[in-house]
């Protein structure tokens, strides 16, 4: 919890800034496409929680060209395949939160979530203790997921 509370919101868009950095555990980008990229969620709900982010800074799906929307759908599909290879979840939440009222944490730059799910993965720690428990660190998740993407290219 201290890690999350110590996080300071940046004045620049983190989704615009991340692609300018070298790939690694610092920026968490596991795959780069032509119009969008796949990045691990820094505050994941479960291990393997990824986001597919267009390079274009927009909060509106309709502002993206059809090629970007098509590539995003392909990256969502590829992300699910990678997570299946690595974690073998029993289900997925995949989608987008458009706007603050819909739950968008970063409403200025749209992004899609792929969240692996297992039966019973919402336990008392998150429900009552307001704490998330992950079985591995982001460093380990990054290495596993990045390696799986590389095998699928």
Q: Please tell me what the overall shape is.
A: globular
- Strands ordered across the widest β-sheet: 1-2-3-5-4
Q: Give the low-confidence spans.
A: none
Q: Output the number of helix runs.
A: 5
CATH superfamily: HIT-like
Approximate strand percentage: 15-25%
Named CATH architecture: 2-Layer Sandwich
Radius of gyration based on Cα positions: 15 Å
Report the span from N to C terminus.
Answer: 36 Å
H/E element order: HHEEEHEEHH
Describe the fold and architecture.
- With 153 residues, the chain is α+β, with helices and mostly antiparallel strands.
- The chain has one domain (29-152): 2-Layer Sandwich (HIT family, subunit A), CATH 3.30.428.10.
- The protein contains 5 helices and 5 strands.
- It has helices at residues 2-6, 14-17, 66-87, 124-127, 138-152, and strands at 29-32, 36-40, 50-54, 91-96, 112-117.
- It has a 5-stranded antiparallel sheet with strand order 1-2-3-5-4.
- A hairpin with a 3-residue loop joins strand 1 (29-32) and strand 2.
- Helix 3 crosses helix 5.
- The protein is globular, with a radius of gyration of 15 Å.
- The termini are far apart.
Task: Summarize the structure in short.
By secondary structure, the chain is α+β, with helices and mostly antiparallel strands.
State the main characteristics.
single chain, globular, 5-stranded antiparallel sheet, HIT family, subunit A, alpha+beta
How are the secondary structure elements laid out?
Layout: H1 2-6, H2 14-17, E1 29-32, E2 36-40, E3 50-54, H3 66-87, E4 91-96, E5 112-117, H4 124-127, H5 138-152
Antiparallel strand pairs: 1-2, 2-3, 3-5, 4-5
Helix pairs in contact: 3-5
